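Q: Got a minute? One more chain.
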Amino acid sequence: PPATKKLPHVRAMVSNDGAGEARAIAMLVRHALETPEKRVALVSPDRELAVRVAAQLRRWDILVDDSAGRPLLQTPPATLLLSLADLIADDFGPVSLLAALKHPLVMPGEARLDWLENVRKLDLKLRGPRIGIGLSAIYDAILAQTEEGPERDELRDWWSGVASRLVSLSDRA
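A: Always. Here it is, folded:
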């Protein structure tokens, strides 16, 4: 009986799966919140369980303040670092290069639209079979697939600026 327990307000529960456990906890939380001015805290080392309980509570329009925050690997700086790691591992392959160049932290601010326009132009030049490996192969692709003129010069100059920032990540030029 609760009166003989050392922690009379603590309950033990056995569940067959995580979904059932989350539903049961969410129901207990909802029941507790029906008392005006009542607060409830779920303390769990299991992040997946906490996320499931929060999802169950959203079904009843109960919003949860998750103090654990967002996982580090889902933050914009971490996704940029992962993108750069893929870029290096792929030897500046077109897919990983374009993913890194499109990242929101690469060129924020007013220059972003011009930056993305140049990335789009580069994307069009890099389609098809991969010409080579490294930053110089991308430069060669720009020269090989673009007719001479101001557009070619603009894209070439833009790429030269980008490549000068990326050269420190490459063991090939």
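A: The mean pLDDT is 87.
Q: Perfect, thanks.
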